Amino acid sequence: MIHLASQPLLWVAFPYICLTVCVTGHIWRYRRDRFGWTCRTTQLLEHRWLRFGSPLFHLGAFAVVAGHVVGLAVPASWTEAVGIGEHAYHVTAVGLGSVAGAAMVAGLAMLCARRLFAPRVRRTTDRTDRILFPVLFVTVLLGVSATAVHNVAGGGYDYRATISVWFRGLFTLQPHPEAMASAPLLFQLHILSAFLLFAVWPFTRLVHVWSAPVGYLRRPALVYRSRKSG
Asked: What is this structure's pTM?
């Protein structure tokens, strides 16, 4: 089986570069393009594909992100301490992750098809979208493929003993690139594409993820009247 070398360039330098670009890029975007901090919705241009694709993608994405946070940030000893054994964790993670991943892929496929085949939506596609959608789709597809090949069809891969250790080490400034040496190629490619996604994140419509509509809670209600009633 092919593996990418456990060299510091891939598993130390590249992640730190991508995370630095992600953080500084968000600061720059917020300071220079605050009015462009939006998802640039195209709901008024086409809504049939959006009505199904958007909920599938967003709900799947929320579940996938939650699963990644637990799987990468929470050590196995913590889940075992609360009574969740390795087998139970593996079965739950694979089952829920497969459903969430399938929903995310289906929703993203609908959104990409909508952008390609709906003329009015296609005309709103800019250069950042042409970068974002391929990177996002490849990242999601690699993650689903890695799970299907190694944890569904295969004998199972304990990523919490290798990938999770490396991931947490990045944030404690004690990276362990050697922990990635035995990771399957699909997982390695998924990780690299995910960090590339982090790097392009602040320059795309994904910035709307960090925006919460708090202002709507204190905004006065809008009253609409027909012309006849005026």
From this structure: 0.85
